[in-house]
């Protein structure tokens, strides 16, 4: 699919004038920097709303210096670098620098708790950790400023071009509560064919004004950001990612392309004094990272014409991908699209294929051209003889092959575009001496898609704020439950397993009863 062996002199990629259609990140960056060295590559907006610009020439030379420094430290092919930085220009330059050495880029949250950082380090065995917060002991670690100071006297020229394989490792919470590391055993970069496919999926084109509206350690914002840079886009990078700031930035910079999660889409339309014309410059809205309700989608069609709205469904495990454009969605309302280069199969619990329209487990296959994925510390997903795999998501297909998403995999909650695993939160809550049992679920929520809700069985009274403060020692803020419910006893079946469905049913029944009382019913 990536066309490593394709050789030609005329390319879809307007910046590539070499014989091979495949480009590495370093080669593409050098090509763009030659064409427009003084044009803005990244426009960073600080917490105080102060703008700073990194040109293509500066981005290339900084990433080259970083690469030479890393190479001198013995960091190259077969090595990995953990990047625990916020969305700042140095983060982008560092990623390019890592790939130029042939090493693997491992982005994680800059707010990751110490215990999780150590767990990831033990799994990945990084040659270097870049963080502006706590530095893990027994690992070589630098701050972003220390790195820039150390590499400032190195060559501005690009090191010999190499393939970075693996190019990326994603770290996410597993269903066991353990951090799961999924590595992409593919070279960093892209080909003409890959770019054309990306343009079809996402609506992107060359040289757009693009807003980064999500953290770089998350899959979708990462892919959109770097694919945008490969296309010569100017990447506007705000430090604040709240709805009000995003609308203001789109208006201020006349942004043409943005990728949003449905939670932000919901918050934007609910802003006081929101004016749809402030988003008038948008040529493409691409949304992914959670369920977008039909009502919310229609509301956005009133702001942006349907043919400018793209939806992508994918996952860290790269089992498959679907996409759908807004005008196509109107003829298949509620669908998340079709798989452009593969097949979808809906199966029951025994693995038997289900008829059209019946809900079951979503299985997907790339039909022999699957991305190469390696699981570092967990077993790989099971695959049949035709390459079909499932991450446990539930849905159905219609007679035209369009996929409809019903629910996420068991134990995972998609909240505000983030994938959060219940077991990880439960493990933390149960560390408290006062908590006998904890069950975490995702409840439907108009703002978050799903709200993290914790059922607590306690040995003695404990306040919500105490649990929140305790959990923040182990978890980043987006994984903290937004609501708590204290119960006398967590229900279990004959085998001693917790009956989650009963807890949720009781909660919803109680909520309906209280709502009825409030309405005088």
UniProtKB/TrEMBL annotation:
Occurrences of domain AMP-dependent synthetase/ligase (ranges): 32-365
Record lineage: Bacteria, Bacillati, Bacillota, Clostridia, Lachnospirales
Recorded superkingdom: Bacteria
Cross-referenced NCBIfam families: bile_CoA_BaiB
InterPro entries registered for this protein in UniProt: AMP-bd_C (IPR025110), AMP-bd_C_sf (IPR045851), AMP-dep_synth/lig_dom (IPR000873), ANL_N_sf (IPR042099), ATP-dep_AMP-bd_enzyme (IPR050237), Bile_CoA_ligase (IPR054986)
UniProt xrefs under SUPFAM superfamilies: Acetyl-CoA synthetase-like
GO MF, any single term: acid-thiol ligase activity
Protein name in the entry: AMP-binding protein
Coiled coil feature spans: none
Ranges where the AMP-binding enzyme C-terminal domain occurs: 424-497
């Amino acid at each position: 699919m990536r066309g490593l062996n394709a050789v030609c002199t005329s390319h879809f990629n307007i910046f590539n004038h070499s014989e091979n259609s495949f480009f590495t990140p370093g080669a593409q960056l050098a090509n763009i920097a030659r064409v427009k060295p003084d044009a803005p590559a990244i426009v960073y907006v600080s917490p105080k709303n102060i703008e700073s610009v990194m040109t293509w020439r500066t981005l290339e030379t900084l990433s080259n210096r970083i690469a030479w420094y890393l190479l001198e430290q013995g960091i190259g092919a077969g090595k990995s670098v953990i990047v625990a930085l916020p969305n700042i220009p140095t983060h982008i330059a560092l990623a390019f620098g890592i790939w130029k050495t042939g090493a693997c880029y491992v982005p994680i949250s800059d707010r990751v708790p110490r215990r999780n950082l150590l767990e990831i380090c033990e799994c990945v065995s990084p040659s270097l950790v870049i963080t502006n917060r706590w530095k893990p002991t027994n690992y070589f670690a630098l701050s972003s400023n220390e790195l820039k100071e150390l590499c400032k006297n190195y060559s501005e020229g690009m090191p010999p071009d190499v393939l970075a394989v693996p190019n990326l490792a994603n770290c996410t919470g597993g269903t066991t509560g353990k951090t799961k590391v999924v590595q992409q055993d593919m070279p960093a970069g892209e080909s003409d064919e890959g770019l054309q496919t990306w343009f079809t999926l996402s609506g992107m084109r060359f040289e757009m004004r693009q807003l980064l509206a999500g953290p770089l350690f998350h899959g979708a914002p990462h892919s959109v950001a770097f694919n945008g840079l490969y296309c010569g886009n100017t990447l506007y990078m705000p430090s604040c990612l709240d709805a009000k700031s995003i609308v203001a930035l789109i208006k201020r910079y006349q942004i043409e392309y943005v990728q949003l999660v449905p939670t932000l889409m919901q918050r934007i339309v609910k802003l006081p004094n929101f004016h749809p014309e402030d988003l008038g410059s948008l040529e493409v809205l691409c949304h992914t990272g959670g369920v977008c309700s039909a009502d919310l989608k229609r509301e956005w069609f009133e702001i942006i014409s349907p043919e400018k709205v793209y939806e992508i469904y994918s996952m860290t495990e790269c089992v498959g991908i679907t996409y759908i454009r807004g005008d196509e969605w109107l003829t298949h309302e509620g669908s998340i699209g079709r798989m452009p280069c593969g097949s979808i199969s809906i199966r029951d619990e025994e693995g038997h294929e289900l008829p059209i329209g019946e809900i079951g487990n979503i299985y997907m296959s790339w039909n022999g051209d699957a991305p190469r994925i390696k699981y570092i510390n967990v077993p790989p997903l099971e695959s049949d003889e035709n390459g079909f795999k499932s991450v446990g998501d539930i849905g159905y297909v219609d007679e035209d092959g369009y996929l409809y998403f019903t629910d996420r995999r068991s134990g995972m909650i998609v909240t505000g575009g983030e994938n959060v695993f219940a077991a990880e939160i439960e493990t933390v809550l149960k560390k408290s001496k006062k908590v006998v049992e904890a069950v975490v679920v995702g409840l439907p929520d108009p703002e978050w898609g799903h709200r993290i809700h914790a059922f607590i069985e306690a040995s003695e009274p404990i306040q919500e704020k105490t649990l929140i403060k305790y959990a923040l020692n182990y978890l980043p803020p987006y994984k903290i439950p937004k609501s708590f419910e204290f119960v006398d006893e967590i229900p279990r079946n004959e085998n001693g397993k917790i009956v989650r469905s009963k807890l949720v049913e009781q909660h919803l029944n109680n909520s309906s009863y209280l709502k009825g009382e409030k309405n005088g019913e």
